[in-house]
Amino acid sequence: MNELTPRAGAMHPGASPVGGAVPRLAKAPPTEGVPPPGSGPAAGRRGRIILINRYFYPDLSATSQMVSSLAFELTARGFAVHAIASRQRYDDAAAALPRHETIRGVTIHRVGTSSLGRGRLGRRAVDYATFHLAAAAAVVSDARPGDCVVACTDPPMLSVTVQSVLPPGTLLVNWLLDLFPEVAFSLQVKGVLGIAPLLRRLRNRSLAKAARNVVIGGRMAALLTDQGISPNAITVIPNCSDGSLVRPLPREAVALRREWRLGNRFVVGYSGNMGRAHEFGTVIDAADRLRGDPGILFLFVGDGHRLAEIRRAVAERNLPNVLFRPLQSEERLCETLGAMDVHLVTLRPELEGLIIPSKIYGIAAAGRPALFVGDRQGEVGAMLHDHDFGSAFAIGDADGLAEAIHRLSTSPTLCRRLGDNARRAFDEQFDRRHVVEKWLALLDGLPAGTRAPPTGRAMRDRVAAERAAAERAVGGAK
């Protein structure tokens, strides 16, 4: 039995939540020492790698960090890498990043889209649609025979659009960071429920035609194979963090603890996105149970759709042991993670296999224990059990969560041991270098493009049609 697993009937009169932080991408280092694209060991093995995602560096959203990090690593390994993204930032729909620039050897082509923002589903759908159109035009215009196009899942259904316009002679790799429409269906998103079966068929058709589909966990792979996607077309590559940027820090060396006046209190933290996919009722209940222990503090760092709801619950219960702080800059990620003694990760059970909270990798890199609220047999629960750096609790088990927090708060030795286990697991499996090696193996194994390129006139007509459609969509959205 895990040391943090509550004994039958055991409980402590107070306990609280914990948290993690989404790994952030470090500032782009100078281009000195980065080989010219296509000049390194990968030169001559294939054409360019073209990554497509709605956000790219310097945006700091989770998908941007993952995609940008891979792009920079591949460029450093000698691949010629291009990125197609929007001009927006996740936290600023009105941003207007440069249309064309090169960062660390990655050529970035930012397309024009509507910028209505994330506030309402309808507006977000328009932003999605205009990116689909503009990205499709860019693929038709820019992709060449021998290129490998990597389509991500922001916005949803991107594989369908890209596969339908993929120029002859190119290969498609889909990078599934989540599964749509299943996520939207599980969250009961209006406008998706009725057409989810159709969307799933379209998506699976595009996956079946791809050269490879990269998924981030075993459960996600199993869900797709159950739907008829060949296991031979699926590769599991987990998300990761950068162990050189995030490293274990002793709590006394963390300046944020002094700035936020955390003192010597045992800090249970949740850092990152507080979105629809996460569960916070159990966390708030645990904080309520621990309200009488002045040595324990719950710290929420970040924002998201459910932040206002969490603030209301804390205010209604008049909890004195909960503190809120805004999301911190990427430069302070290591400190943010190190300011917390134990982290909480949450995920609604119905989303297991559809999403994996990427914050777990940053927590492991920081050498901190984690407590998970969700499906105890899910991906994160299994990770904590297999590597012994925390425990999982079912939704509603506030007593068990509170007892685990109390036990950690009174046992620095246990906390340290679990934290050491976390960093050891990270170094062995989840550091960015391991993930990059998996991507290199995948790309090395892809066949060369074989289809003949279309005639010049056909290509010009296709490009003109796609661009006209994108311009009309953008103009109509404003």
Automatic annotation (TrEMBL):
CDD domains: GT4_WbuB-like. Transmembrane segments: none annotated. It holds the Pfam family Glycos_transf_1. Residues 65-240 form the Glycosyltransferase subfamily 4-like N-terminal domain. Residues 1-43 are annotated as: Disordered. Residues 262-424 form the Glycosyl transferase family domain. It comes from the Bacteria. This is Glycosyltransferase involved in cell wall biosynthesis. It comes from Azospirillum picis. The lineage of its organism: Bacteria, Pseudomonadati, Pseudomonadota, Alphaproteobacteria, Rhodospirillales.
